[in-house]
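Entry type: protein chain
Record version: 2
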Amino acid sequence: MKCSFNSFGMLTIMLVLMLGFGCTNAQLTKHANTQGGNKIYQHFSAGYTGCMPDKNVVEVIEVDGVGETLWTATCGNAVYLCSGVMWSERGYSVSCAPKAK
C-alpha cells in the first residue's frame, strides 16, 4: 500500500498511526521532513529555541509507530534535540534540550 499525505501535518500522521494503515516509519519520517509536514515541529520547538517558528530549521529523525517523534531544531548556531510523545487522542507532550556534542 502506498502512503500519501496532505498538509495536515503531525495530526494527520498521528491519525494514520492510530488507524494503522500500514505506513512504515520511514514513510512517516519522510513526510514529516517536507515543508508542510515539519511546520508543526517548528512551532513545538519555538518555546525551547527562543526563535520564531519560521526561523527554526527542523529535521525529523524518526517518527515511530506508537506516537513518538524525535527531531532536531536549529536556531542560528544552536541545535536542540526534541522529542514528542502522544499520550492520548488530544494530548501531545514536547521537550527540547541543547543537543549533546
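Comment: The chain has one domain: 10-98.
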